[in-house]
Amino acid sequence: MAVVEKVEAEVGGRRRLRLSNPATLEPIGEIEVHDASDVRASIERARKVQPAWAELAFEERGRFLERAVRVIIERQDEIVDVIVSETGKPRMEALSAELISSCDALQFYAKRAKGLLRDRSIPLHLMRTKKLRLVCKPVGVVGIITPWNFPFALTINPTAQALMAGNAVVLKPSEVTPFSALLLDEIFAAVGLPEGVFTVVTGDGETGAALVDAGVDKISFTGSVRTGRRVAEACGRNLTPCTLELGGKDPMVVCADADLDRAARGAVFGAFSNSGQVCTSTERVYVVDEVAEAFTAKCVELTSELRQGSSGEFDVGAIIWPGQIDIIESHVRDAVEKGARVLTGGRRNPNERGYFWEPTVLVDVDHDMAIMRDETFGPVLPIMRVTDENEALRFANETGYGLNANVWTKDKHRGFELARSIESGSVVVNDCMITYGVTESPFGGVKQSGIGRVNGEMGLKGYCNVQSIVIDRMGAKSEPLWYPYSNDKLGRMKKMMRFLWGTSLGRFLS
Ligand code: NAD
User: Fold this and answer.
1) 459 CB less than 6 Å from ligand 1?
2) Which has the closest alpha carbon to 175: 154, 199, 146, 196?
């Protein structure tokens, strides 16, 4: 598989990958492909240091993360340079979607993990002679595997949660964008994070598979459905818990009463930011007939104002690697062959040296076309007319994916009701994509878009084993259910059963 001009070279019996900037095709460096024994060594080191890390108070662990925030602020231009060089995205997107969200994640979990993971007493509805305490314990060593589309933010976000929960982390970044993760490793070293608590192993699928198989206590995977399925199979064999954050085909529903200016701006941003390479990109639009023409015209106008490029001020950047641009091209070609019309874009950008696809608006699309069914992961906005909101909902749910969605209407109550009817892990009303950035919000997919949740309290607890401790309060000599058994006892139990669930007073008390 070709990856951004990846050139493999055997040096001293080890595979190396030579990477280049997808926007300029200039070389940006090389990485070594770590093998199974390298991965095992990293995990062993992590196992040794993890108990001492978990012993630290939340405040002490949090201080390392807060110091990392300060380094990110100080070295922001340098970090942006690295992200831009390996992804070809605009500096604005590197800063807003990667650095700012990373600072927020680090600070959020550093400050709040203690409260969110504190021991809890749960009042018992029936066994009032007992006390229940829930204790969140770290799982141990977490293996994190990340994709290329947000190489800094998607590295930091799960890492911040896993570390604050008291785990050590071994992280395998995408082979296409390893330098952001290596920079984070350097930042953690600079703030004195104990060695082995966070380790980056570089490489491709071979290294990722080795990490999944090496006996970590949890795998946190973000990537495609295809790889996610393999990871889940391997985790299943080893009974390793995993969360899978996978792809999407996010629908946008535009109602007749939507603010069309805002909706069109939202559609253009949702489809083209990060060159459409966001798991929560708007990948297909359903707009009701009455406003379809006006909405589409606005989208085309806004799209034609976008500046694509690789230097200076620009809005839309590069596509990460040739394989991705091939998928985009094949989806657009398939749509056009089946009757879709290209209103703007629809081709590789001939003026750029690297991998660029022009922001594209398509109409006359339908669900026979791959562009409306499969994840395109590129700057394409296919717009489909529907008769009403019910038809929009039916199409929105006619998919194997279920990550995110967005709904546009001035009636917020109706927006909420429509959002509830969409089969996805999250929905945004009158905005788009922001769910991942709402740190409190659990994030994840339904159907093929994933298993489990990251972020917020739910995500943080996913990096813990929740232990339940039941404590007897009374210290009586015996318990009603203990030996000896007798017919007398059996009779009392029958009476208790009839009272508790067979009478209204009993039901009230229980
Ligand atoms: P990918 O699945 O090709 O690769 C993801 C990671 O898995 C990489 O680090 C890769 O080296 C590794 N890998 C490959 N084979 C492996 C194996 N057999 N075992 C273990 N690891 C292996 O995904 P990608 O192309 O890097 O990223 C794009 C995809 O990620 C899109 O589908 C996108 O929607 C999805 N994504 C999802 C989210 C989310 O939160 N749901 C966020 C970002 C991206």
Assistant:
1) no
2) 146
CATH class of the domain comprising 250-439: alpha beta
Mutate which of 144, 212, 224 for ligand 1? The one with the most ligand atoms within 8 Å of its CB, which is 224
Residue 353's alpha-carbon distances to 18, 88, 149, 310, 389, in angstroms, are 19, 12, 20, 9, 43
Average pLDDT, stretch 13-42? Answer: 96
pLDDT greater than 90 at residue 455: yes
* Residue 378 in contact with ligand 1 by CB distance below 6 A: no
Q: Are domains 4-246+456-465 and 250-439 of this chain identical in fold? A: no
Instruction: Give the model confidence (pLDDT) of 323-337 as tens digits.
Output: 999 999 999 999 999
Q: 178-235 pLDDT, tens per residue?
A: 999 999 999 999 999 999 999 999 999 999 999 999 999 999 999 999 999 999 999 9
CA 147 to chain centre: 10
CA distance 416 to 394: 16
In angstroms, the CA 366 to CA 399 distance is: 13
Mind spelling out the 3-state secondary structure of 395-443? HHCCCCCCCCCEEECCCHHHHHHHHHHCCCCCCEECCCCHHHHCCCCCE
What pTM was computed for the model? 0.96
pLDDT per position as a tens digit, 42-53: 999 999 999 999
Which of the residues 245, 352, 358, 389 is marked catalytic? 245
CA dist., res. 97 & res. 95, Å (int):
6
pLDDT for res 36: 97
What is the SS3 assignment for 444? coil
* Banded pLDDT at 14 (limits 50, 70, 90): confident
Domain 4-246+456-465: CATH superfamily, name plus number = Aldehyde Dehydrogenase; Chain A, domain 1 (3.40.605.10)
- What is the atom index within ligand 1 of the atom nearest the CA of 436? 40
Question: Cα of 222 to ligand 1 centre, how many Å?
Answer: 5
Is the per-residue pLDDT at 4 higher than 60? no
224 to each of 161, 201, 204, 246, 394, how far by Cα in Å? 22, 20, 14, 5, 25
Ligand 1 proximity of 246 Cβ (cutoff 6 Å): yes
Cα–Cα nearest to 66, from 100, 105, 117, 110: 110
Domain boundaries, the chain: 4-246+456-465, 250-439, 477-509
Q: 145, 218, 446: which to mutate for ligand 1, most atoms within 8 A of CB?
A: 145
